[in-house]
Design brief:
The chain is α/β, with parallel strands linked by helices and 235 residues long. It is built from ten helices and eight strands.
């Protein structure tokens, strides 16, 4: 399954007020594994950013002045995202801007090009009701290092969100596996008998891929090899 983790930066909060997309960052996952096939562009919005937005992303008008305009990058974006399931944190915001940009060029909407949307903000609220579920909060909760995130950046945020998504949907909270044994006490003066039925089931391809993605995430977190990867490499 091909998934694209996506983030954008914009000149403001509302495309209907003339605000535009100025950066798009995408990270590709295939069967829950990072492929390195990323997509990243800065875009000249042909207008200035609002003060609040500029304080968030730091992308000045001068920096963006020589970057391509949206119509110059749209075909590459369309090809990259075609048919993929797209993962976004607070999807209505990014989709609203991207659909607006596509409509300006009289193209089918961005949403019509993709194979579905996963909103990690909605997922996080369901998993952690009543808690902060910003990207920074989720990084803290799942142990994803974001110490290098001084300003918002579309590609950096997409990379962080990919790690958070993989952690949030892993289906287990620790690497340990505990098997409870059923203890039956028979009043015969003998020692208690421990009964445990052990059934061996080989891991499926999806489970193996998820395991490898977990190890890759641990390697990234420690910026090297975690103990499990190092042990396997030494064998």
């Amino acid at each position: 399954m091909r998934q694209i983790v996506l983030d954008t930066e914009t000149t403001g909060l509302n495309p209907k007020q003339g605000n535009r997309v100025i950066e798009i960052g995408c990270v590709e996952l295939h069967n829950r594994m990072l492929t390195g096939n990323n997509f990243h562009v800065y875009i000249n919005p042909e207008r200035e950013s609002e003060e609040g937005a500029l304080n968030v992303h730091g992308l000045t008008t001068e920096f963006l002045s020589d970057k391509p305009k949206f119509h110059e990058i749209v075909e590459g974006l369309r090809s990259y995202i075609a048919g993929a399931e797209v993962i976004i944190h607070n999807a209505p915001f990014d989709l609203g801007f991207l659909n607006h940009e596509f409509a300006r060029l009289k193209l089918p909407t961005f949403s019509e090009h993709i194979g579905g949307v996963i909103d990690t903000l909605v997922q996080a609220k369901e998993l952690h009701p009543g808690k902060r579920n910003s990207l920074d909060a989720l990084c803290d909760r799942y142990g994803v290092s974001n110490s290098h995130r001084k300003l918002h950046g579309a590609l950096l945020d997409a990379e962080l969100l990919a790690d958070v998504y993989l952690s949030m949907t892993r289906g287990q909270n620790s690497l340990g596996m505990e098997v409870e044994e059923e203890v039956v006490v028979i009043d015969t003066g003998l020692e208690p008998i421990a009964l445990a039925d052990i059934i061996f089931l080989p891991a499926s391809d999806e489970e193996t891929a998820a395991h490898e993605a977990t190890l890759a995430g641990l390697d990234k977190a420690v910026k090297g090899q975690c103990i499990w990867t190092a042990t396997l490499a030494a064998q």
